[in-house]
Amino acid sequence: MTGKLEVPENISIIPLPPKCPEPNPVENIWQFMRDNWLSNRIFISHDNIIDLCCEAWNKLVDQPWRIMTIGRRKWARGS
User: What Gene3D superfamilies does the record tag this protein with (predicted)?
Assistant: First the structure.
């Protein structure tokens, strides 16, 4: 963290512990996508990886309730 950052009064900075991705909602989204659509595959090329990641992302976008449930985990809210 730096002292040069100007943080508005209505925002609280909470530093994430190093090597602890669980509190980071984006990491939870990626983990869900890996677990459900991207793991245990053989990728044949870089373009294939991009295509399959885009396909997985589009599946997730079609399920907004899933995104909300991943972000609303009790431990992720700190309560």
Answer: Ribonuclease H-like superfamily/Ribonuclease H (3.30.420.10)
